[in-house]
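SEVERITY: medium
COMPONENT: batch folding queue
REPORTER: lab tech (J.R.)

DESCRIPTION
The queue accepted two submissions in a row. Attaching both inputs and their returned structure tokens so the on-call engineer can compare them side by side.

ATTACHMENT 1
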Amino acid sequence: MNKQTCPICPHHCCLEPGQTGLCRARGNVGGQIEAVNYGLITSMALDPIEKKPLYHFHPGSMIFSIGSFGCNLRCPFCQNWAISTPGKDEVDWREFAPEEVVDLALQLRNRGNIGIAYTYNEPLVGYEFVYDCAVLARKQGLYNVLVSNGCCCREPLERLLPLIDAVNFDLKAFTGQFYRKIGGDLETVKQAIALAAETTHVEVTTLIIPGENDSEAEIRVLAQWLAGVRRDIPLHLTRFFPQYKYRDRCATDVHVLRKLAETAREELDYVYLGNC
């Protein structure tokens, strides 16, 4: 009774009252699906826009970055696992209203801030808070930046995108097998990238993990598909360092990364290396 299905991502968790979903940030509260991480901020910082990474969106500027807890993927190589994997009672947070977040962003304008970036954990598991902040930020002339894994269903994403000025999507790999391993869906991510590219500035990041997604053939197909969306979408190929459950792995060989970048540049206008 009062069992409800979450509409945000392809997991479509069907939850009894009191239950939380796989992301640990959304739950059935009194018969309605809500973001239980609404306004609960675990991380905030004033970052260079290039750190998102966004290289073609107001380069040289700063962006007020906020994050909560929770994620709808289970990447064993996650760099932010300390906030992406815990639930509400397992992580430190401070509660903010959307108005307070926007006020903080406005106060940082004198330090070069141009807006708010929803980042660090997966922001779309806290969809309602992102939406409410974005509405207020837009009214104040602030830019809204989204850093997401792209595992979001079409309808909620379509509703949010008119408020978003730039997105960096984390395209983890380009095989369905890899996405099944981390609990995601490649076709949903591809749909999100293509949809966002119709209306907003998009850049894409792929973390290159040795033995996982580092073949020239895979990167060529990825770049060809991305060029089919838009050839001028910047692609960031970033170097993996041992993290979380992959601490026994080797870092990506820089020579391999450079070779993959050369392959991607055969299809795309802008390819950048990160973490080198």
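ATTACHMENT 2
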Amino acid sequence: MKFKNKVVLFTLICFIVMATCYFSVKKNNFLVYLKFQPPTNTEEITKKMTTQKAKDDYDFSNPVPMSDAVFDSYFDDAVFFGDSLTYGMTANFPIDSDNVIACKGASIRTMMQKVELSGKEEMGTVNAIGEVVDREPKKIYIMLGINGLAWMTTQQVIDDYEELIDRIRIANPYAKIYMQSIFPVSKFKEQSDDRYNNYKIDKINNALLNLASEKQVYFLDTNSILKDEKGNLSSEFTNASDGIHINQEAYELWYEYLCEHTA
């Protein structure tokens, strides 16, 4: 009888020990499960993972290569940000003019301040970057730099561009940013005002490509499509006496280039 009681007692003790271990393991596993559960906002996590993967896989040290042409609807969620050259898109691109945030005569720094937007003068003075953010774009195309050429060094242009990109990225971290190279000027412009010359423009564009690689934004070599064999803005692409602004044919070529160079 005593032996039987000992066996029962031993069995009972073993059962208690096993049960304690089992529930302890289960508890620890549950705590580990809770600790490493992802946030409930899975859409946000997916966006971050997708964005990071795209950046990890992409070579930002080179201009965006040619790709299959996209349809006009590709630009429905895009904003075009720049000066008078960008403003000219409203009459020459099949895009919503509301998504063109531009100011005639603007420099890079000007577009980081409050301005009166061309074609939207009734809005008064507004924050240009704020107008971009309000539209919640998925792509942002920037074309700036020609208006600062006369008085800014290459480093000053790069410093301003870097600040602009940082501000836009903070305001809209998920948008694809396309930086477009500065267009060339005509031979007449070079000869009449030596502050504007294509050697300096090429130097700035090379520096912008390096900045694009550093900041991981997409660089578009828009400069090359309007050059003649001597590196000037081709006479067939400008009717303007200032040697800077471009004609409808150039805008059509520009739009075609954007359609065929997407990332």
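NOTES FROM REPORTER
The chain has a mean pLDDT of 85.
No errors were logged for either attachment.
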